[in-house]
């Protein structure tokens, strides 16, 4: 929406001396973007599980960071705008201590992961108070899907300003490469974390956030970094939209993406795409093959989310440079993973879920209600399959997301959708609808569904789902 997001601003803790650099908007290149074009892409550092356990401490604080060529005050994990990637294997355990040095409550959500929503696991209803350290403990199932996930705060109603301020990072569950042919299991991989920020003075802006305002679109916190590849070489790119509100319509000039996983769900058949729409919160793991010597652009194409939504202009995200000795081409597979196809499943319930909104005041609803953490909106039974028709009565797209269990997208505006796996994010067309099916597996407890445009979530577009025995 082209409306202001009204929350109390997070107070700046220090006055910074800013570097005199011109910021790049989504509308086109700037001196900063041009200078950054010669900077190699830097993948985030990793914290990796050892002997089945990942142990990490994450400190949340406001501090100055070097981001996209500027020194700006930001909300950080471990002092970084692009914090460590958490990397583990299916069946591992993660022990994570989150220390809150902010002046307000926060918490942590492990986006997309199939894990308990209760207790000290992926429980977004708890609040970690200023000065408090909370110890999260996650036990992941042996059949956890490999791929790219992410982590970010989820305190209501301040998710949007905290993520926009810089609090988001990548999670990788290993296992995707093992599904590839032997000749492709040692290929280079890159995190392509799509993360934007607006600037106010010497700080990354947190409030009021107007989604349609010019913003700096970065890859791993860098403006237009260079990615090197050899002619014929195949690389694995982990595309992840870890921004608070905006969409990315990602395109690699002159080439196609070969999709091997969607929202960390390996596809049953690898499919090619000229462009990939990453609604807020979405991810794709893709294979990219190096072309003839020279440079090409990784872009986000212009995208319009509807009459009441936002028009995102085209922008360059990174530069792919093909150089060096050619690599003998390796044939890409066509089949890949497997998934439980719910097309013929017995349905325990069919529901209609309606997304709507009003202006003056700005308010966002699910089934006509604003979010209330003390109210259960939907109760679903463990080990059953449900079909939901998710209708959008507004004039803008919404990014539909459900915690704990992924879903199979069955249709869009009445047209059957050929799913190649499950997902956890789907864009609902303006004045349109999607149909999804979910198998509620393994975990009971209270969780949520919501619009992952976090301005909308914070202003009410979230509902409580309780999974019961």
UniProtKB/TrEMBL annotation:
Gene3D superfamilies: Cupredoxins - blue copper proteins (2.60.40.420)
InterPro entries: Cu-oxidase-like_N, Cu-oxidase_2nd, Cu-oxidase_C, Cu-oxidase_fam, Cu_oxidase_Cu_BS, Cupredoxin
Protein's organism: Pseudonocardia aurantiaca
Signal peptide start-end: 1-35
PROSITE patterns cross-referenced by the UniProt entry: MULTICOPPER_OXIDASE2 (PS00080), PROKAR_LIPOPROTEIN (PS51257)
Pfam family, one: Cu-oxidase
CDD domains registered for this protein in UniProt: CuRO_1_Tth-MCO_like, CuRO_3_Tth-MCO_like
Record key words, sorted: Metal-binding, Oxidoreductase, Signal
Identification of the protein by name: Multicopper oxidase family protein
Domain Plastocyanin-like: 72-174, 214-289, 358-466
